[in-house]
Write a structure and sequence with these properties.
By secondary structure, the protein is of the alpha/beta class. A six-stranded mixed β-sheet has the order 1-2-3-4-5-6. Strands 7-8-9-10 form a four-stranded antiparallel β-sheet, with no helix packed on it. The termini are close together.
């Protein structure tokens, strides 16, 4: 499996990773950097080279993992996004709150490119969210499967086991 870091900085921030097998491309998380504003706060989606991805997995609802989910979903408009039920519920609240914060930042900082996404875009994106139970294997397209395990980090957080081509990565 090939691993590509889409995070713009070497520190915790806009966490986002592409994992590729011979037949699958899976995006893991799509965070927003908490100390940056606008495009600098987002993952570097140009590294996807316009090829999108087959599926996405969201590990938990902290801003640095979920904050750019709608932007990631623009890169692959038909791709499903897998997560736990608790992560789905918390992510909806976090993303709507993020729009409100970005609208305030637009006015306070004079940043015309904010917000990066809208409330309506979040509502529409939720149609592609797939809630999965822990320890349940699910198909990610091509030759890759995923399985979520309790991470004990925050409510709904999960570690991810990926399988493809006879190999596993956690």
């Amino acid at each position: 499996m090939k691993f590509t870091n889409l995070t713009r900085a070497e520190e915790i921030g806009a966490n986002c990773y592409l994992l590729e097998s011979d037949k699958s491309r899976v995006l893991l998380d799509a965070g927003m950097h908490p100390r940056e504003v606008g495009g600098l706060a987002t993952p570097d989606f140009s590294l996807l080279e316009g090829r999108g991805f087959d599926a996405m997995i969201l590990t938990h609802a902290h801003q640095d993992h979920v904050g750019c989910l709608p932007l990631a979903m623009r890169q692959a408009p038909e791709a499903p996004v897998f997560m736990t039920e608790a992560t789905a519920g918390l992510s909806e609240v976090m993303l709507h709150n993020s729009v409100s914060v970005m609208m305030r930042q637009r006015d306070e900082l004079g940043a015309p490119d904010l917000p990066l996404f809208t409330h309506r875009e979040i509502d529409n994106a939720m149609d592609r969210w797939e809630v999965v139970r822990l320890s349940m294997r699910f198909d990610l397209g091509g030759d890759m499967t995923g399985e979520l395990f309790d991470a004990g980090h925050i409510l709904g957080s999960s570690g991810v086991l990926l399988r493809a081509g006879g190999k596993r990565i956690f």
